[in-house]
Task: inverse folding
């Protein structure tokens, strides 16, 4: 027998692991050459414990978020109120303008209704009944 073979058969698991690592890796069947072999199991990987905050910190953060939300709500309500007031003012202004225009109009009454029949289309369009 060869001396190398006898040492590998009787060797410890550490020796066999070293030998397995030294075996050259062949071309994978899938063709994905960039993929590496897994060295550790998922359970063996050391995981960091998540950061935990205390109850008082959580409640403080919650209160802060609530105050920010209330402030946003107040600002939004203020903005909608301003817009509503502006819209009302514009409507009132438009109404006043129309009333003033009606007051300042020069009106001529048509007493002879036969004139209406003789009028042209453009003149008829300008006539308003009140």
Result:
């Amino acid at each position: 027998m060869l001396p190398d073979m006898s040492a590998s058969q009787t060797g410890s698991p550490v020796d066999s692991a070293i030998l397995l690592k030294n075996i050259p890796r062949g071309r994978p069947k899938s063709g994905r050459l960039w993929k590496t072999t897994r060295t550790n199991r998922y359970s063996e990987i050391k995981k960091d414990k998540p950061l935990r905050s205390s109850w008082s910190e959580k409640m403080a953060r919650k209160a802060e978020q609530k105050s920010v939300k209330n402030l946003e709500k107040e600002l939004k309500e203020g903005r909608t109120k301003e817009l509503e007031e502006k819209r009302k003012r514009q409507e009132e202004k438009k109404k006043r303008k129309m009333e003033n225009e009606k007051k300042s109009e020069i009106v001529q009454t048509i007493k002879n209704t036969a004139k209406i029949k003789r009028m042209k289309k453009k003149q008829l369009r300008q006539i308003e009944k009140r």
